[in-house]
Structure of diguanylate cyclase:
Amino acid sequence: MTPDPLAIRFQPTIAPADGRVLLIENSRSYAALLAAELREQLGIGVVIAASLREAQQRLAEDDDYFLALTGLVLPDAGAELITDTLARAGIPMVVATGVYDEAIRSSMADLPIIDYVLKEAPGTIDYLVWLVRRLHRNRTITAMVVDHSLSARARIAAQLKLYGFRVLQADDAASGLLALEEDPAIRLVILDQDLEAEGDAGGIGFIRQARRTHPRGTLSIIGTSSSADPSSVARFLKNGANDFLEKPFSREEFFCRISQNIDNLELIGTLQDLATKDYLTGLPNRRHFLDRAERMLREDKGAVAMAMLDVDHFKHVNDTHGHEAGDEALRAVAATIAAHARPNDVAARFGGEEFCLLAPGLSAEEAETGFERLRQAIAALRIPLRNHTLQLTISIGVCHRGDGDLHALVTEADRLLYLAKARGRDRVVCESQEAVA
Ligand SMILES: Nc1nc2c(ncn2[C@@H]2O[C@H](COP(=O)(O)OP(=O)(O)OP(=O)(O)O)[C@@H](O)[C@H]2O)c(=O)[nH]1
């Protein structure tokens, strides 16, 4: 089946990742300020240690830290001892320090340090909050390195793991494309442009093929190359790469590019969600439903069932229990409809307390029994409110056609819904039962 480019893919509501930050800092006021910002803005746990001894105690008690944010001067230890201790504990570090020079930095080149930040510089707290958010979210994202060279692959994969990503590796375009097809969680590909092998698609071939199913806004492809030929860089970008890095690149540049690309993907996902999802229930909105349904009917000429669903006496729910209870009820109904929908069905909030569902490939009988099951599931809901448990019913109009005219389907399902309401609500009316009083 051709993938549906209109399907909502990238969820900005990132699945919550666990883990806390260990903040090692001898200035109590600075630590308190930074911890408060991290907790407030990101909602993540922060544990403060004011000395190396305290940090060691925290680490012995708990191994749930995904990051150590550390200074380089503590009452009981200096830079080397602090960073060695954290490296041995296997915790990625961000160093925030007032003393910063290239000598210290190059002496720590082999340690798992993600970034160095000058503590007193303006905007440092904001930068650190952004950095921790990025690293926390990376833990829900899969990245893939596609490179012939085992050593280059291992080096890049190790960096990506340090930034929190789950990392896959492929040594040619064909196996990379296969992994992309099999693992929908991949959002980032670091691709060697010089990938060339007999019978293999190569770097450009990888991008062209990947872009058929993964648009720029859902998968970031960053090319790398040791050739400095500017025309090949342009060719790579024109064929669909999001960005490019010339080898050898610094760890710092690599981290900035990766983070910026992933930030952009999330931003696109957020904008896409705002345009296509209903804010209250998370279901597709009416406009998005109409776009997807049009496309489905154009591509699939088989039979489809179209249902319009409307909560009964919903005004009464609002009037009796308040608007917030009404919202809660709409969320519960939407969740039941979404759980009932099969992967290729398109469900949406059509507006107000009205929902719709387009289900391809169902016989008229299957549609009737399916929507009757959905009606019963909604009638069986017990929605907990503050002092009350709410029950609801829903009326459903279902038509079943194969002529591919969406407007006709919606109008007909709406007419049958009106009949269901007129016949007493809490029922499904299909075309076959129209004559039944
Ligand atoms: N809480 C809440 N109420 C909404 C929302 N959208 C629409 N409504 C309410 O839904 C109610 C719809 O009422 P009516 O169209 O009269 O229909 P009904 O009371 O459900 O009656 P029948 O459809 O005839 O069974 C109105 O009171 C709207 O204010 C929403 O997002 N949240």
Q: What stands out?
A: The pocket of guanosine-5'-triphosphate is lined by residues 280, 310-316, 318, 323, 326-327, 330, 352-353, 421, 425 (CB under 6 Å). The two ends are 41 Å apart (CA to CA). The CA atoms of residues 245 and 254 lie 8 Å apart.
